[in-house]
Amino acid sequence: MARQGESAPALVKLSSETKPSRTKHCKTKCAQSLGTASTKQTALGLTKNQMDLTQVAKAFNQQLALRAPFYAQHFVATTKPQGLSIDTWSQPAVYQQLLLDFAKAYPPLAKTTSPIPSENIPEQILLSHSHNSKALHSLWGQWYFGLLVPPMLEWIINVPHSLASPLEQIDIAPKYFYLRPHDSGRVAGFEFQLTLAPTTQVKTAIVKAARVKTTVLTPPRERQLIQWIQSHLIPSVKRLIGLSPTPAKLYWSHLGYLIHWYLGEMALPNIGFEHFKKLLFNTKAFEDGEVNPLYNSINLLPASAAHADNIRRVCCLRYQLVNSHRCGDCPLATRVQAKRAAQA
């Protein structure tokens, strides 16, 4: 359940249905039907109690539908993806076509600041807009991470304990997430291809995170959360900044805001929520020594502070686009208010 005073991220404001379910943690034993495959040696080097990945996908999709039905419509675990791989959609020509389609709904503002009908905008202007507008790329990135992050937090944190061990063995690298594009050019959803990670990769991840401390969650889940940041989010942000003029700090601002918001929606005990906030946003480096890119990505103000709900450190720039607006918790507005108060 959301903490008092916190506002939903921009993605929620784009759709009236984006609010995740407030249903308490699923107590259904979704994994009772999990089958096991042959115990023979596999090409991946895993020898015993291999899970049926089709059944794992089914169990997780059922869990997501119970916990967060909106996201279940846009994110599915599968063994047979049909969407665009990251190596496909991130080709410059493919990505720019997606942004060109996206630009039709969010064209550049005219000098008069009055909207221009999209049918009257020359294609070369839209093409330049899709190449050069930080705001357009920023908003596209909000859709991208907005439909990816909450289901993955459910996968890592709220999955039933009966599935926790199998899920640790599944590779969460970006290449296993397939994008389904919307007709408008934005992201419509994702297909998560369940693939067993090589044994050496699993062992390396465990050893790397062995020193990560935990006081709330079981160590494997916390390790997987950090692994997801390091092996998925960091490469994804690097891929996006190589394709767009938007700086990395803006993408990490989106991610920090979204992760903080959704953790508040997960009905975690308050001690768990505070633990995650400290781990993800107040820690400069993880205990394996790697830099934490979420550090200082948002403002963590005490609930008693003025504008405690304004946690964004960086403006998302969406106010620069036609058919959009300035967010209610925009940091620019907060700074203006603070300046006026200081001058009063």
Quick recap:
The protein is mostly helical. The chain is built from 14 helices and three strands.
Can you give a write-up of this model?
The protein has 344 residues and is mainly α. Helix content is 46%, strand content 5%. The chain has 14 helices and 3 strands. It has helices at 10-14, 53-67, 69-72, 86-89, 92-103, 123-132, 134-146, 149-158, 161-168, 199-208, 219-241, 248-265, 270-281, 331-343; strands at residues 75-78, 177-181, 187-193. A 3-stranded mixed sheet has the order 1-3-2. Helix 5 (92-103) packs across helix 6 and helix 12 packs antiparallel against helix 13 (270-281). The two termini are 38 Å apart.
Brief descriptors of the model:
344 residues; three-stranded mixed β-sheet; 3 strands; disordered N terminus; disordered C terminus
Shape: globular
Major sheet: 3 strands, mixed
Strand content: under 5%
> Would you tell me the overall average pLDDT?
77
SS-based class: mainly alpha
Strand order of the largest sheet: 1-3-2
Radius of gyration: 21 Å
Uncertain residue segments: 1-8, 13-50, 209-218, 338-343
In total, how many beta strands?
A: 3
Count of discrete structural domains: 1
Count of helical stretches: 14
Summarize the amount of helix as a percent range: 40-55%
Distance between the termini: 38 Å
Q: What is the ordering of alpha helices and beta strands?
A: HHHEHHHHHHEEHHHHH
Question: Topology, please?
Answer:
Elements: H1 10-14, H2 53-67, H3 69-72, E1 75-78, H4 86-89, H5 92-103, H6 123-132, H7 134-146, H8 149-158, H9 161-168, E2 177-181, E3 187-193, H10 199-208, H11 219-241, H12 248-265, H13 270-281, H14 331-343
Parallel strand pairs: 1-3
Antiparallel strand pairs: 2-3
Helix pairs in contact: 5-6, 7-12, 12-13
